[in-house]
Amino acid sequence: METTENKTGFAYWKKIVILLCAGWMAIWIYRSALSPIYPQISSSLKGGASDTALGLISSFYFTGYVAMQIPAGLLVDRIGKKKVLIPGFILFGIAAFIISQATTIGVIYAASLLAGVGCGSFYGSAYSLTSEYIPQAKRSFSTAIVNSGSAVGSGLGLILSSFLVAQRGLPWQTMMYITVALVIIMLIAFQTIIKESKSDEVVKTAVKEEVKVEAPKEKASMKTLFQPKMLFAYILYFATCYAYYMTVTWLPSFLGTERGFEGAAIGFSAALVSFASIPGALAFSRLADKFMDHKVRFIVILQFSAAIMLLLTVQATNSTFLLIALIMYGFLGKLAVEPIIISWLGDNAPKVGIGTTLGVFNFFGMMSSIIAPALTGQISDVTGSKVMGFYISVGLLVIGTTLFMLANMKKKAA
After folding, report:
1. What does 186-254 look like in DSSP terms, one character per residue?
2. What are the tens digits of pLDDT across the range 95-127?
3. CATH of span 214-414
4. Can you give the pLDDT at residue 410?
C-alpha cells in the first residue's frame, strides 16, 4: 500500500536531503561571514584587536567543533539523531547571539567555542540520517546535494557580509542576527520533519519500498572502528581536509603576496574553489551511484587528480594557467570526493554504530582544520613563502590515497 509521500512523489528521504542541505548552508553562512568584516569587529571592541587575535576566532570555533565529533557520534547512537541535533543547534543560536552582543574579544572567543560545539552535533546526525534513509543507489548523489549546502552557504556568507556590512555600512552584528534567524528556522524544520525514536518504525514503514532496513548484526567497537580499511579512510579524509582548509585559509594571501593578484580578483579567485566543487560533486557522485562497485576507484582517481591540480596551482607561471588549475582543484577536490567517501563509509561501517564511526571519521578530518592553517602560517613566517605548505598538502594527499587504495586492494584480493 502506497503512502501519501509516495503518491505525491516526495518521499521522506528527499525531505531529509533538502533539510540537511539547508542545515549546512546555515552553518557555513556563519563560518564565512566573520572573516570579511574583521576590521569592523576590531573597531567595535574595547581596545581593538590584532590580526592574530581576530584569526583566533576561527581557531576557537574549530576547536569546539572537533572536540564534539566523537561525543556527538556516540550520543547519536545512544539517544538518537534528533535529540543530538536540536540541542546542538540551540547552542549554536545562543552562541551567535552572544557574539552579536560582545564588546571584548574574550567573549567572542568563548562564544565561538560554544558555536563550534553546537555545530559539531550536525555531522554525525546528518550523515547517520543519509546512511539510514537514502536508497543506496542514490546515496552518493544525494550526499553531494547535502554537501553543496556548504559551498552555497560559504558563498552567501562572504557575499552578504561584504555587501551588507562592508559596502552598505550596516553594523557587523547584522550577520549574527541573520544567523540566529536561520537557526530558528532550522530548529522548526528539524522538529517538524525529522522522525525518530518512537516514530522510527513509522518512518521505516513509509520508506520500506525504497530502503531495505535489515536487522543490524554488528556494533561499533575499537576493533571495527580501527580495522585497516577504516583507519586508512580516516587518514585519507585527514589528508583531503588538510589540503582544503589550508587552501581556503591561505589561498587569498598566497595570490596577493606571491602571485600578484589585487583587489576583488583575490576574493573572486579564492571563491572559485567552492563554486567549482558543486558541479564536480554532482557529476562524480552520480557516476558513483551508477557504478556502485567502483566507489574506491572513483575516490582514488579524484584524489590523485586533485593532488596534481593543487601542485599545478603552485607551479603555474601565469594567472590564466593558475586559475584553470584552481578551478580543476575545486572540481575534483574535497567537496567533489567527500560524498563518495561518506557513501563508501555508510556501506562499510557497522550499521548500529554509524554515528560513532562518522564521529571518529570527521574528528580525523577536522583535526586538519586546526593544524593546516597554523602550520602553513608558521612555514610562511620562517621561509617567507607559503609554497611549502601547498607541497605538504600534495604529499599528504598522495600518501593518504595510496594507503586507502592498498587497504581496499587487499580486501578485494581476500
Report:
1. HHHHHHHH---GGGHHHHHHHTTTT---PPP-----HHHHTSHHHHHHHHHHHHHHHHHHHHHHHHHHH
2. 999 999 998 889 999 999 999 999 999 988 888
3. 1.20.1250.20
4. 62
CA distance 316 to 309: 10
Q: How far is Cα 256 from Cα 250, in angstroms, rounded to an integer?
A: 10
Question: What is the band of 413 on the pLDDT scale with cuts at 50, 70, 90?
Answer: low
**Where are the domain boundaries for CATH 1.20.1250.20 in the chain?**
1-213, 214-414
* Rounded CA separation 366/310 (Å): 20
The one-character DSSP state at 168 is T
CA distances, 285 to each of 41, 123, 250 (Å): 40, 19, 28
Mean pLDDT of 289-314: 90
How far is the C-alpha of 239 from the C-alpha of 228, rounded, in Å?
16
Superfamily of domain 1-213: MFS general substrate transporter like domains (1.20.1250.20)
Residue whose C-alpha is closest to residue 358's, from 68, 163, 21: 68
Return the pLDDT at 64.
Answer: 92
pLDDT > 90: percent of the chain: 31
Beta-carbon contacts of residue 21 (< 8 Å; ≥ 6 apart)? 145, 146, 148, 149
Residue 104, C-beta contacts closer than 8 angstroms, at least 6 positions apart? 45, 46
Phi, psi of 28 (to 5 degrees): -80, -25
Mean pLDDT, rounded, for 30-36: 81
